[in-house]
TrEMBL record:
The keyword Nucleotidyltransferase applies. GO terms for molecular function: ATP binding; metal ion binding; nucleotidyltransferase activity. It comes from Roseiarcus fermentans. Keywords: ATP-binding, Magnesium, Metal-binding, Nucleotide-binding, Nucleotidyltransferase, Toxin-antitoxin system, Transferase. The keyword Transferase applies. Belongs to the MntA antitoxin family. This is Polymerase nucleotidyl transferase domain-containing protein. SUPFAM superfamilies: Nucleotidyltransferase (SSF81301).
Length: 130
């Protein structure tokens, strides 16, 4: 049976909104976030100085986040957003009228991938660095 490794990484972003990608990865790992993506006015380039930053989160399958968990995540992400407020949502919380579009167009800022073998891990690192 192949050994399973966990690779957490921050993808190159069109919108550089987080001041410290390493700290972002740490917050995501601590709260068992599988994927964190940017959507809304910040992604579209229409944000005002007082706009919050809309973030879509997908948790690990066995994670059981609560409303308090989401509030903690928002609090921990604010310093990484240069003081802007984070508005963290799951796809399930979004309106059915625009959920599919948000999920389809959101820009991934962090994603944890499970990789089978050390060779697969090395190949993923080589591919991501290209």
């Amino acid at each position: 049976m192949a050994e399973t490794s966990l690779l957490a990484y921050c993808r190159p972003m069109t919108q550089q909104v987080f001041s410290d990608p390493g700290a972002l990865a740490s917050v995501c790992r601590r709260h068992r976030i599988h994927k964190l993506s940017l959507f809304g006015s910040t992604l579209k380039g229409t944000a005002r100085p007082d706009s919050d930053v809309d973030l879509l989160v997908e948790f690990e399958p066995d994670a059981r986040p609560t409303l308090l968990t989401l509030a903690r995540i928002e609090s921990e992400l604010a310093p990484l957003l240069n003081g802007r407020k984070a508005d963290v949502r799951t796809a399930r919380e979004l309106s059915r009228y625009f959920r599919d579009e948000v999920v389809r167009t959101a820009e991934v800022q962090y994603e944890a991938r499970r990789l089978g073998s050390p060779a697969t891990l090395a190949a993923a690192l080589d591919h991501d660095g290209a």
